[in-house]
């Protein structure tokens, strides 16, 4: 009985040893399989990684050639910022210079002209509509009335002032001005050379246009146009501008003119108010009643 038990225990021991050997063998094969799989994966993905690295290097190189390196781009951005700062500074200097010229012209108009003007500053205006209407900082308390004439001091001209428009609405401290560019503000003019009359009636963003009342009128480029005094608003003799172009309509029934105004309507800063009740004296800089416009160079 004891012999059988001992033999049975020996069989169990042998079986255990065999199982352990099998497990060891399987583990060894699994390791080899894993290693083989890893080698296969490496052999597959390694070339892909190398190719990807090569492509990314080429792209990076091309980007740096086109846009520059990071340091180069930073330097370019810095230069662009400095350039913008210089442009702003240049614009400020240009504004100062232009205002200086304007103030000198205004001083002459106030001191030398025989007319009595009131200074007014342009305020509360939409830059998109300034060429047609704007507001000034003078109103009822300053004696401003509807139909008072608005002019601007001008430099580099035979006249001290140029026509801007008229007052159309008056409030306690401000007034609204309608310029000659407004469609509702047709202005009658006279050619200072021929004495022929015409009307300003068409406006674009850059030009002022009109026509001669008589199709046979004599009008030429560089002729000076002044207000005619007709219509009861603008007194005669205010400088409007010079003729820059003369054309006939297709049906030959209308002679059209384009004029250059000395007033920059898109950059109005300060204007001069002429009371409608005041007598107006032609604001010529030179004492020459026979002035016929700008002379050819």
From TrEMBL:
Source organism superkingdom: Bacteria
Gene Ontology CC: one annotated term: plasma membrane
Keywords: Cell shape, Coiled coil
Rod shape-determining protein MreC beta-barrel core domain residues: 122-275
UniProt xrefs under InterPro entries: Cell/Rod_1 (IPR042177), Cell/Rod_MreC_2 (IPR042175), MreC (IPR007221), MreC_beta-barrel_core (IPR055342)
Keyword Coiled coil (UniProt): yes
GO BP term (any one): regulation of cell shape
Parts forming coiled coils: 69-96
Pfam annotation, one family: MreC
Family the entry assigns: Belongs to the MreC family.
UniProt function note: Involved in formation and maintenance of cell shape.
Protein name according to UniProt: Cell shape-determining protein MreC
Organism name: Anaerococcus tetradius
